Amino acid sequence: MMDNERNSTLYKYDLSLFQTKIEKMVDLTELMENEVFMAFASYTTIILSKMMFMSTATAFFRLTRKAFANPEDCAGFGKGENAKKYLRTDDKVERVRRAHLNDLENIVPFLGIGLLYSLSGPDLSTAILHFRLFVGARIYHTVAYLTPLPQPNRALAFFLGYGVTFSMAYRLLKSRLYL
Hints:
About 80% of the residues lie in helices and about 0% in strands. It contains eight helices and no strands. It has helices at about 1-25, 30, 35-65, 70-75, 80-85, 90-120, 125-145, 155-175. Helix 6 packs antiparallel against helix 7. The chain starts with a helix and ends with a helix.
């Protein structure tokens, strides 16, 4: 009988601890009412969709230019030595690939820092300015990379996006984090 009472007490304690943790978590409806977070979610959706487009663009250029990186990708175009001629690099494919890689290097930090920034209670208009500048800079960077536009177009777009992410990080560290 003692074990049953002890187990019951432990169960009640665990349940109480679990309820306390749930109460401390951010209520999802509260998060959906946070205008800065919703703006971040909107601009993040745009920039992630653009990044997904870059994967499709890479595949498109690989197929249309018949330039593949892996032997198994060439199999549909021939066998043996005939397929090996498609195992090559192409300037246009590499340009799209580099633009996509640059997106990965810049959008991932924006996602992490932007999320923390959006949850730190910044002014809505300042936050939206940050998000719009970043998304605009990344879209322009892609256009400048793929067209290609002469420098300093691409560099200016890169540094604008990088500066926006740095600005959010600085504001976050200055106002909300304890170092």
